[in-house]
Amino acid sequence: MSNHETDMVLDVGALAELLTQYFQADDRSCVQFRANTFLSPADVRYLNRIVAEDGRRHVVVASAAAFVELARKWDGIVGDQLQPHQLAAFLQATPDWFAVDPVDESLLPALGQVPPEVTMSDGTTKPVEWLDAIHAATALARENARLVTTDRTLLQMRVEHE
Amino acid sequence: MKVVLLSRSDVERVITDPYGRRQEDTLLLCTIVEPLQIAEQVRKGRSRMHWPDFLREWEAARESLDLAPLDADCLERALFERADTYIAVGLWSGIDSHILPIERTMHRLILRPSEQTWWGDEIYDEMETWYE
Predict the structure, then answer these.
(1) What is the pLDDT along chain B (132 residues), one digit of tens a residue?
(2) A162 assigned to some structural domain
(3) Same domain, yes or no, for B1 and B53?
(4) Chain B hits for A89, Cβ within 8 Å
(5) CA distance A130 to chain B (A)
(6) How high is the ipTM of this complex?
(7) Sequence-distant (≥ 6) Cβ neighbours of residue A157 within 8 angstroms
């Protein structure tokens, strides 16, 4: 599936990076995101296009579960680069190009499409755990979406589905 | 109206018998965590149900439940300690631990009582007893 025709669903690492860069920007109305560990150059090019179009065609998405993960691992993921009041402000006034997808019953049909385990490139099998399955289902529940993740199991699952 | 919080085994019973007898003056409150956990068992082949059966039975059971999701409103309401209605001064201590299983954090966030929830402390306290 092309990077250029989809919504982008972020896992917790990508979400944390997006929020950090967003709140470090001088002008949040026209943020230019940069590539790093969690956002590849291709991801960032498409992300910046979504932002420039103000979400009119596609949006950046994170599951409410990703926000919970972020809050639980706050010190390890964002440390002092992001403040809780900034996260609260983001949730209160989410930009038009961003959507917080609920963890609700709309996920259930998509959850059934997530395999219980995936075969890794080295031939071993890894289970797709509950929370990862929720992230995958969040992407699958959208008509046209791509999961941005650095998790090896989810990446392998994405490869198997593409 | 009496509110009853459903545990996972309660929800499994409702799924098995969606048209079973109910007290008319009782609301059955269920968080999204319970059907997701049941779905997880089905997805991993650890349930007597197969996926299409689960979805069909869930749909039938759904009509008798008040389902509480984890959504943006819930995050905004429960994720923070606030100095007043508007000013977040930190993350809520109820979630500030990676020692708790994430489903307990989700339960806490969904059920944390506030002016916006139609249930009170007793529902939250009952959920906490599940983990004792």
Answers:
(1) 889 999 999 999 988 876 666 667 889 999 999 999 999 999 999 998 899 999 999 999 998 899 999 999 999 999 999 887 778 899 999 986 668 899 999 999 999 999 999 999 999 999 999 998
(2) no
(3) yes
(4) 88
(5) 7
(6) 0.93
(7) A114, A115, A118, A128, A136
